[in-house]
Amino acid sequence: MDWLGGFVTATNLWVTNEPNVRIKSDDAAIDVWIRKWCEKNPTKTLFQAAAEFVRDQRKDYLEAWFARQAR
After folding, report:
1. Which of 23, 32, 44, 69 has the fewest CB atoms in 10 Å of its CB?
2. Would you state the torsion angle of the CA atoms of residues 35, 1, 44, 58, taken in this order, to the nearest 10 degrees?
3. How far apart are CA 57 and CA 45, in angstroms?
């Protein structure tokens, strides 16, 4: 859980550094989401699960951000 919390915090600081788009979620909510995702994707890594979690939380913003970075 500490690593996942750090991943979300790092994403907030590095990518979604705007108060209205930050990922807001508590440990219990992250835990439930990650467990469900991992059950559906048993061959994937925890990193992939965390990346999917943050994408799920702010999909439109993150897609636009990564598109800007690719230019």
Report:
1. 69
2. 80
3. 19
Long-range contacts of 30-37 (CB under 8 A, 24+ apart): 30/1, 30/4, 30/5, 31/1, 31/4, 34/4
Give pLDDT tens digits for 9-51.
888 887 766 777 778 778 899 999 999 999 999 999 999 999 9
Q: What is the spatial distance between Cα 28 and Cα 61, in angstroms, rounded to a whole number?
A: 24
Rg (CA), the chain: 12
